[in-house]
Design goal:
Structural class: alpha+beta
Helix content: 40-55%
Distance between the termini: 29 Å
Number of helices: 7
Number of strands: 8
Strand content: 15-25%
Strand order of the largest sheet: 1-4-2-3
Order of helices and strands: HHHEHEEHEEEHEEH
């Protein structure tokens, strides 16, 4: 929820069409909602549980696992957990000492990620999944996190892209897309 979100919210309040919508922005960065909407769309998603109780998580999800924060102050981080001790630490830190639940997902395969920049994807294995995420949420720039299990990608999360994560080729892709949009709509 930075300035771009609030500019979009203001535009929506004024009755303007905004892509992505504020609802999509909120949904895509809350892991359980993202996974629910993706599953409804027919995408493969990882099994998960939402809880603030470590014992509940341990009962439902076996180690190793991924832990994603659900607190509104997180900036897209996550932890890979391999032991009971690291699970307690992850739930405590990502849940802000029990104030918020976390989303725990099975770690069933290898983790892969890719940048999505207006349709351009760095990892071809995740091209179709990134296109599906874009079709559902209309998010033009994001980091896709997936697990590869038996050569099939399973959606884990969508993370925001930060300016410092963009490389010179990424900026060139973004500049070209903006330039193309100006030509079409200008």
């Amino acid at each position: 929820m930075k300035i771009g979100y609030y500019v979009s919210m203001h535009a929506e309040v004024l009755g303007n069409s905004v892509i992505p919508t504020c609802q999509d922005i909120l949904d895509v960065y809350k892991t359980p909602i993202l996974l629910l909407r993706a599953r409804k769309r027919g995408m493969h998603v990882t099994p998960h549980i939402v809880s603030d109780n470590v014992k509940d998580i341990e009962f439902e999800v076996s180690l190793p696992m991924l832990i994603f924060p659900l607190n509104p102050f997180s900036n897209g981080g996550y932890k890979v957990v391999h032991s009971e001790g690291s699970l307690y630490r992850a739930v405590r830190s990502l849940g802000m000492n029990g104030k918020y639940p976390v989303c725990a997902e099975y770690l069933l395969g290898s983790l892969e990620s890719t940048k999505f920049l207006f349709g351009s994807v760095g990892n071809p294995l995740l091209q179709d999944m990134a296109a599906e995420v874009y079709a559902e949420f209309r998010l033009p720039v994001f980091q896709l996190l997936a697990q590869i299990v038996e050569e099939r990608p399973y959606l884990c999360n969508v993370l925001p892209m930060h300016r410092e994560e963009l490389t010179v080729p990424d900026i060139e892709i973004l500049s070209k897309r903006v330039e193309d949009a100006e030509i079409r709509f200008g």
